[in-house]
Amino acid sequence: MADEKDPRFVPIKVEDGFVIMPDRWKVDFLASMGELSRFFIEMKENARLMGMKCPRCGSVYCWPRSWCHDCYVDTEWVEMSGKGKVTVFGQVEVSLNDIKKDVPFIQGGVHLEGARYVLVSCIREIAFEDLYTGMPVRAEFLPPEERTGRIRDFYFVPDE
Ligand SMILES: [Zn+2]
Question: What is the Å distance from ligand 1's center to 70 Cα?
Answer without folding.
Answer: 5
